[in-house]
Design brief:
single chain, about 80 residues, mainly alpha, 2 domains, 3 helices, elongated
């Protein structure tokens, strides 16, 4: 259910000319985007470093690389 101030603003906006309505929308969107950026910064990948337990899947990273390379080589050598 819309609040009374919202209904009032909506009625006022409907009375505006089309160009003024578009300008109003542009300014509202700009305000929302600006407030979104300032209140919630985007996460950085660097912040996630070290957050997973080692080893992640129960396998050492170097062993995983060696195993997957060997499996890939085996698949390529099969005629």
């Amino acid at each position: 259910m819309a609040s009374p101030p919202y209904e009032h603003v909506l009625r006022e906006a409907e009375a505006l000319a089309r160009g003024d309505q578009l300008l109003l929308v542009e300014r509202l969107v700009a305000r929302l985007r600006a407030s979104e950026v300032s209140t919630k910064p985007r996460p950085r990948w660097e912040d996630l470093a070290g957050s997973a337990p080692y080893p992640l899947c129960g396998e050492d990273a170097q062993k995983w690389v060696s195993r997957t390379r060997q499996e890939s080589d085996e698949r390529r050598s099969v005629p």
